[in-house]
Amino acid sequence: MWWLIGAVALGIPLVLTAMPEFGMLAVGAVAAAVTAGLGGGVAMQAVVFAVVSVALIAVVRPIAARHRAQRPELISGVEALKGRSAVVLERVDSSGGRIKLAGEVWSARPLDTEQSFEAGQEVDVVEIDGATAVVM
């Protein structure tokens, strides 16, 4: 019973501080409680608590740290439009034009001011400058 009380006591700082190590120690305490329930002695309970807790910290903590360090793969907003293909609706030249990008009509200008694209041509979006797509 004391191990289960200890597990709950370790769960409280886990929730308050969001430190996963407390959760791993709580799992070790539950494992020790199971050992006690199966008739293991106090020494065996302490060994099970230590082994399970250390094993979880040694294995799970590096994996969690790796996942925490990774940036999300989801790109949204204007960044998601860069590199996409679009269809020219109205001639695009240095004075502007219109394209259909991701189902929407955008104003556009070429990356190279000497270049122009005719209606129906497919272009690639290089960047978004305000409400204007820069294409090539």
UniProtKB/TrEMBL annotation:
Keywords: Membrane, Transmembrane, Transmembrane helix. It is found in: Membrane. Its main location: membrane. The keyword Nuclease does not apply. The chain crosses the membrane at residues 42-64. Residues 78-135 form the NfeD-like C-terminal domain. It comes from the Bacteria. The keyword Phosphoprotein does not apply. Coiled coil: none annotated. InterPro entries: Membrane_assoc_protease, NA-bd_OB-fold, NfeD-like_C. It is a multi-pass membrane protein. This is Membrane protein. It comes from Streptomyces lasiicapitis. The lineage of its organism: Bacteria, Bacillati, Actinomycetota, Actinomycetes, Kitasatosporales.
